[in-house]
Amino acid sequence: MSITVTGIRRYPVKSCRGEELDSAVVEPWGLAGDRRWMVVDAAGRFVTARVEHRLLLVHPRIVEDGLELTAPGLPPIHVRAPGAGSERISVQIWSSTVDAALAVGADAWLTEAIGTSARLVHLDDPTLRATDPTFSRPEDRVSFADGYPLLLASQDSLAALDELVAAGPLADEGPLSMTRFRPSLVVAGAPAWDEDRWRRIRVGGAVFRVVKGCARCVMTTLDPTTAEGGKEPIATLARHRRWDGQTWFAVNLVPDSPGARISVGDGVEVLEAGDPADGPLRATTVAARGAEHR
């Protein structure tokens, strides 16, 4: 079995469109430049494409001094990264509250782009936000990603999922694009769903813990090119990939080799694996196995 990296993607602004990369540096909290920016409302609570679908149509690009943003029907805008002395606000993302720097000049543009009041913040100190201690270590950190530094998805698993969709009542919604799952790394060459059992892997020169399966939400039902919704893949995952009342696709990673560079074409080596009968690593697996992955 020869597994290789076929795609690397980062998301400069949480919930917005991603960037395809040939290579990337792995930092303790994710790929360099990944989800260090976030859209928030007037109260500082994160705004997500789960609710504001038009965020998926905002295309950020990292430039030397900040970001360039484009969106349908609007002129591009350049946003400088906040510097020393910038206004700071407390922002909330899920159960985390962290201090972030407020970007200047983006609010009106973002509000028009997504149709609701919005502000843009920058996580200039990425050491502030801890990961869920149930599935990771006290020193692990994450940017503005939902829960963990990286997400790995398998092309072989997506092909298997597409076959299930094609055989079901919503066949016209397939095949599905990998971009709707928003992975950091895409790999190919392993049997479908084999990533469920991975516990430690090496990608090129970087080692990662596979700390948890990824429970999927309504955001995967949105076409990332149009922001229009459907019922897949959740409908099919609910029939074939349902555990603990949730549906599962892809796995979350925490890096143990920060500073390493990974590239498309790198080999992937499975260093440790669990029982495939367990399905994706999740809370009930941890309880049953005594948190073996820590």
TrEMBL record:
PROSITE patterns: MOSC (PS51340)
InterPro entries named among the record's database cross-references: MoCF_Sase_C, MOCOS_middle, Pyrv_Knase-like_insert_dom_sf
Domain called MOSC: residue spans: 125-271
Highest rank taxon of the organism: Bacteria
Listed Pfam families: MOSC, MOSC_N
Coiled coil start-end: none
SUPFAM superfamilies for the chain: MOSC N-terminal domain-like, PK beta-barrel domain-like
PANTHER family from the UniProt entry: MITOCHONDRIAL AMIDOXIME REDUCING COMPONENT 1 (PTHR14237:SF19), MOLYBDOPTERIN COFACTOR SULFURASE MOSC (PTHR14237)
Protein name as it appears in the record: MOSC domain-containing protein
